[in-house]
Amino acid sequence: MPRRTPRTARDRLRTSRFPFGFLKTASVCVLVAALLSPLTRTATAAPGATVPDDYCGGRCSDILPPGENGNATLAQILLNQAFGTQPAHAEDQLGPYAGLATGYSGLTDAKINTFFNDASFGVPSDQVASTEKPAGRGDVTIVRDKKTGVPHITGTTRYGTEFGAGYAAAEDRLWLMDVFRHVGRGQLTSFAGGAAANQGLEQQFYRNAPYTEADLQAQIDNAVAGGGARGQQALADVNAYLAGVNAYIDASDSGRYFPGEYVLTGHKDSITNAGTIEHFKVTDMVALASVIGSLFGSGGGGEVDNALSLLAAQSRYGVEEGTKVWEAFRERNDPEAALTVHDGKSFPYGAKPADPQGAALPDAGSVTAEPLVYDRTGSAATAAARKTSATAAKATTGSARRGMSNALVVSGEHTASGHPIAVFGPQTGYFAPQLLMLQEIQGPGISARGASFAGLSMYVELGRGQDYSWSATTSGQDIIDTYAVELCQDDYHYLYHGTCTAMEKVEQRNAWKPTVADGTAAGSYTMRAWRTKYGPVAYRATVGGKKVAYTTLRSSYLHEADSIIGFQMLNDPDYVKGPEGFQSATQHINYTFNWFYADSRHTAYYNSGDNPVRAGGVDADFPVWARPAYEWRNWDPAANRADYTPPGAHPGSVDQDYYISWNNKQAEDYAAAPWGEGSVHRGNLLDDRVKKLVAAGGVTRTKLVQAMADAGLADLRAEDVLPKLLKVVGSAPVTDPTAAAAVNRLQAWVAAGARRTETSAGSKTYADADAIRVLDAWWPLLVKAEFEPGLGSGLYNAIGNNLPVDEAPSAGHGPTGSHAGSSFQYGWWSYVDKDIRAVLGEPVRGGLGRKYCGDGSLTACRDLLIGTLKQAAGLTAAQVYPGDDQCSAGDQWCADSIAQRTLGGIKHGKISWQNRPTYQQVVEYTAHR
Fold first, then answer.
1. pLDDT for position 45
2. Where do runs of H (alpha helix) occur along 545-625?
3. Which residues pair with 474 in a beta bridge?
4. Do residues 167 and 240 lie in contact, with contact meaning Cβ atoms separated by under 8 Å?
5. Rounded Cα gap, residues 597 and 65, in angstroms
6. With contact defined as beta carbons under 8 Å apart, do 488 and 169 qualify?
7. Cα–Cα distance, 630 to 125 (Å, whole number)
C-alpha cells in the first residue's frame, strides 16, 4: 500500500476518537487482511535530481502540519480507526510544529530545522526515499524525500512538468480535491453525505458563487483570452496538470490503492471494485478556486449589518449624533491603528464621502435573509438541519469578517547578516488532510518550492523561487458592494435601467442516504439562488416603503480563474528577479491579499485585489440603489468588469525597515470592510516585538521566529488591555477578598508575559490557569457592563453583529469553527482600551466621543469592574469551558487546543494552542542571481 508505516508518533498526538465507531476491531482486522493484497505503484530509490540554482544557502525552512500524505487506502483508514496507526508522512510535521510552542525560548539557528523542514531545492542522494516516472513518462520525475515525503517534481518539458504536478497532487490529496470540487459546485451532500457540517459548507459557498457549468467554462475562456500568451500557457498547464491527475485516478483505480473514503462513502465497492472515480475537468479548477477565494481572498460585505447598526444608533441618539457614535465605533481610519506601511504614505480608499449619495437604508424591521434551501425531505427537514442553514446564511451574508495569516519581514539594514529575514505564512485552519500541500516544481519556466491549495497546485502559490520568497495574508479591503434593486411585477422581477427584468433562477438539487462514513438519514433539498445583474440576492427589505432585494456584487465574481496569471509569474525565475517583478506579478491577482517578498538584498510589499472605482459620493459601507448613477465606473454587467484603482493607488512599499501583518490595517487612509482596526489589534503583538528587535539591531532568524512564536502564545486582551483595567481597579485599595485574589492572579500572569502556554511540553495544563480562566470569564461580562448601559441593548447588540465582543481561543469562530488556532482577530479590545484610557484621563486619539465605563466616573467604572470581576472569579472551569464534541466540560487546555478537522478518514490528536500560520516559511537568502 502507498507509503504506509506503523504509527510511531508520540502518545500525546494519538488518535482518540473513531468516526466509524461501529466498526468492531475483529471485523476491521478481517477487512484489513483482505485489503492488503492490492499493491500500488513501485517506488524505488534513486539518486536525487539535479538541483537548480539555490541561493538560500541552507537558510530556507518551512512547515505544514499534519503531514504531506493526505491520501489513505481503506486498509489504512481502518487501521487508523482501530489502532491509531498512521500512514507514512500523514502526521510527521505535526509534532515539530506543535513543539515550537514550548521549544522556542531555547531556539538557535542550528535548531530551527528541529521545528521546520529544510526547504532547500532538491533532495540529497542519501535522503531520496523514492523516485517515480508517472505513467511511465520520460519527461518528468517525482522524487520524494525520506523525512517528509514531499514531492520534488522535475520535468524536461513544460507539459511533463505540469503532468507530474497533477499526478503528485492526486497522490497526496485526491479525496480532498474531490470534496472541494463538489463544495464549489454546491454538491457536497450528494457526494459525501448529508451530515450537518456538509450541509452548512455547501450552502455557505453556494450563496457566494451559484455558478452554472456554463459560468465555470466562461471564466476559463475569459481568463485565457485576456491573458495573451501567458493565458494560453496557463490553459496548457492546466490541461497537462489535469492529465496527470486523471492518470493517477486510473492507475489507483486499476491498482486498487485509491483513497478509502471512496469505499466508505459508497462510490467504490471494496470487494468487486465496482464504481467510478470521476475524472477532473477544467471547470473543476474554477469551482475549487471559488471556494479558496471566498474563504481567504474576498474582502467586503456586511453592508446590511452596517445599515442596521447605523439605524440603531440613530434611533438611540438621533440622526446626527447617532451617526457620530456609529462612525466612532466603526474606526474606518483610526489614527492609533497598527499599520503595515508605516512610513507615513497615504493610500486613500473606501473613506466616508463628504456628501454621501445613493444610500438605500432599509426601513426598520423590514430586513429578512433570502432563503436558499427549499423542498426539504427526510433528515433535511429536521430542526437541526434548519438551524444549520440559518448559521450558514449568517456566516455568508452578514459578515465582512475574513482573515487570518501573518508576516514578519525585516530589511537587511537591521539584521546580523545584512540580508533580509522573513517569517511568514497563511493561517488556513487545521484540517486532515490539510487544504494546502507542499511541493517543489522544476521545469521550463518554473522553479519554485512551497505550498499550494490541493487541486490548484499547477504552480506554487506561497513559497520560494531560486533567490526569493513570497507569502500572503488576507487583506480585507472592500471589493463587495450591496445594491438595492427595486422590485417590479412580483418578487422575482427588478428594475434594471428602467426596464422590469426577470431574475435568473439557479438551482442545485442534492440528495443523500446513509453510508459507512456518514450515517445521516436519507434526505434531500434544493438550493435555489436568484441572480441579478447586480449579483445574487442576499436579503429582502423595504426602503422608503418600496420593496427591494439586496444583492451582493464582488469584483472577483465570474473571475475566479483570473489570478492564475499572477501565480504563473511568481513561479517564473525569468519574470521575478527583484521587488519590481514580484509587485508586477501580484498586481495580476484579483483576490484581496497582502503580499510580502524577501531576497538577499530587498524586501517588498503589495496589496492585491480588483478594487472597483465607485461612483462619486457612494459610501461603500452601506447598501446603495441599483441605478446607473451609483454603479461602479464603466461597469459591464455581462462580464462583471469595471474600472479598478491603478496599482499605484494600492498600498505598496520596497525596503521599509520592517513589515508586519496580521490582517491589520494596511496603510493610512486605506479603509477595510471588517470592523476592529483600532488601537488594539493582534497586529500590535507583532509590531511591538519586531519594532524592539529592529531598534536593537542584529536581527537573526532565531530572534524573528521567537518574536512570532511569543506573539502566537500571547493573550491580546491580557497584554494590551488588562494592565489598564487593573490600573482602574487599583486606583483605590481592593478590600473584597475574592476580587483581591483575582487581581493578584491577573497581575502575576501579566508580569509573567500574559501567555496561554503549557507548564511543560505535553502537560496539557496551562501555567497561570486560574488567571486565564478569570479573564476568559471576565471579558464578556465587563464589556457588557461597560457599554450596554450607554449604548442601550439594541445598539449594543447591533454593533456586536458587526464585531463580536471576543475571540478567545476556546470560542467557536472563523470559517473553521472552534479548535482552529486563529484567535484575537475580532473583538472589542480597542473599544475597551480607548474608553478606559479616557476614564483614566489619558490621551486618546480617535476616541469614542464619550465615556462609557461608569458614565465617565472613575469610581463608578472601578465599581463596575470589580463587581464583574467578582462574578467572573466565582465561575467554575466547567462553566467557563462547557465542553463540546472534542472536550469534556472544564478542560481548559482542551477547550483551546487545535484539532485537525477531519475531511477524510484519518484522525490526528489535538495539539496545544498556538496562534500562528498553518504553513510557515523562515527565510534568509545569502546571495542573488
1. 41
2. 564-570, 579-586
3. 593
4. no
5. 23
6. no
7. 63
Quote the CA–CA distance of 200 and 183 in Å, as a whole number.
Answer: 10
d(CA 925, CA 743) in angstroms, rounded, equals 47
Mean pLDDT of all residues in the chain? Answer: 93
Give residue 873's identity as a one-letter amino acid code: A
> Is residue 402 predicted with pLDDT exceeding 70?
no
For 372, half-sphere exposure in the C-beta direction (CA atoms, 13 angstrom radius) is 33
Backbone angles phi, psi at 593, to 5 degrees: -135, 155
Eight-state DSSP code of residue 615: P
* Residue 210 identity: P
**Residue 250 pLDDT more than 50?**
yes
Q: Find the mean pLDDT for residues 406-421.
A: 98
pTM: 0.95
Give the bridge partners for 60, in sequence order.
Answer: 923
Distance from C-alpha of 896 to C-alpha of 809, rounded to nearest angstrom: 5
pLDDT tens profile 639-660: 999 999 999 999 999 999 999 9
* CA–CA separation, 305 and 188 (whole Å): 29
* All three cell numbers of 852: 462609557
Q: Which three cell numbers stand for residue 701?
A: 532568524
By the 10 Å C-beta count (0-12 exposed, 13-18 middle, 19+ buried), 354 is classed as exposed
Other CB atoms closer than 10 Å to residue 671's CB: what's the count?
Answer: 22
Average pLDDT, integer, range 368-373:
96
Q: What 3-state class would DSSP assign to 710?
A: helix
Cβ-Cβ contacts under 8 Å for 638 (sequence gap 6 or more): none
pLDDT score at 293: 82
pLDDT, residue 811, reads 76
What DSSP state is assigned to residue 135?
G
Do residues 738 and 873 lie in contact, with contact meaning Cβ atoms separated by under 8 Å?
yes
Vertex 336: Cα angle to 332 and 337 (nearest 5): 60
Amino acid at 835: D
How confident is residue 741, by pLDDT bands cut at 50, 70 and 90?
Answer: very high
624/602 Cα distance (integer angstroms) = 43
Cell numbers standing for residue 565: 496569471
3-state secondary structure of 591: coil
Over the Cα atoms of the chain, what is R_g? 27
**Look-up: residue for cell 542584529?**
698
Contact 591, 625 (CB under 8 A): no
Crossing angle of helices 769-802 and 858-873, rounded to 10°: 120
Yes or no: say if 139 and 154 are a contact pair by the CB < 8 Å rule.
no
Q: Where are the beta strands (DSSP E) in 372-435?
A: 373-378, 406-410, 421-425, 431-432
Q: Which helix (H) or strand (E) holds 511?
A: strand 504-512
- Estimate the crossing angle of helix 383-397 against helix 196-208, to 10 degrees: 30
DSSP state for residue 766 in the 8-state scheme: B
Selection from 631, 632, 617, 548 nearest residue 361 by Cα:
548
Coil, strand or helix at 424: strand
Give the pLDDT mean for 803-820.
77
And the C-alpha cell for 275? 464504481
Return d(Cα 450, Cα 63) in angstroms, integer: 9
Interatomic CA distance for residues 70 and 87, integer angstroms: 9
How would you class 339 by CB atoms within 10 Å of its CB: exposed for 0-12, middle for 13-18, buried for 19 or more?
Answer: buried
Measure the CA–CA gap between 729 and 863, rounded to whole angstroms. Answer: 8
Alpha-carbon span 445 to 423, nearest angstrom: 27
Which residues lie across from 482 on neighbouring strands?
552
831-865 per-position pLDDT tens digit: 999 999 999 999 999 999 999 999 999 999 999 99
Distances, alpha carbon 21 to alpha carbons 81, 237, 484, 519, in Å: 8, 43, 50, 11
Give Cβ neighbours of residue 535 (< 8 Å, ≥ 6 apart): 483, 551, 552, 553, 554, 557
C-alpha cell at position 560: 475566479
At residue 294, the pLDDT reads: 79
